[in-house]
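Worked example
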Amino acid sequence: MSVFDVEIDALTGGPAELAQYKGQAVLLVNVASRCGLTPQYAALERLQQQYAPRGFTVLGVPCNQFMGQEPGTPEEIVTFCSATYGVTFPMTEKTDVNGEGRHALYAGLVGTADAEGHTGDIRWNFEKFLIAPDGTVAARFSPRTEPDAAEVTTAIEAVLPA
């Protein structure tokens, strides 16, 4: 099953309709507003602006499983992200990425290894998965890998649609 076939709601309500991203490259990131890595939102938004015209989107997935660092309501999350970091990329509903309540979206991702060989549970906020236009996982990046790091941008450019 492709990532694009998974059902999940948008942060602001209603289905996120991941099928709309078929044929595009997607950087899927579990995000949080009160984390030491939260400034990565700025680089994620730069990627969105740089690559969106070429068939790319960042998809933020808020998660409150890591020390309660995403406690806000959907409205608070949207306001924080747009006012603080100018975020324009889409976001899903707040989701569990680990444990018994792990969302099906992440169940299909965690088997992918990152550059260090890590598979399994999401380690922290801002772990990144690059999804190819066909819905397969092209790469996984650790939370501390900056979104605009060379290895990330090189991977994005390699999977951008023609």
About this structure: The chain has a mean pLDDT of 96. The two ends are 23 Å apart (CA to CA). The CA atoms of residues 40 and 146 lie 7 Å apart. Strands lie at 25-31, 56-62, 128-131, 137-141.
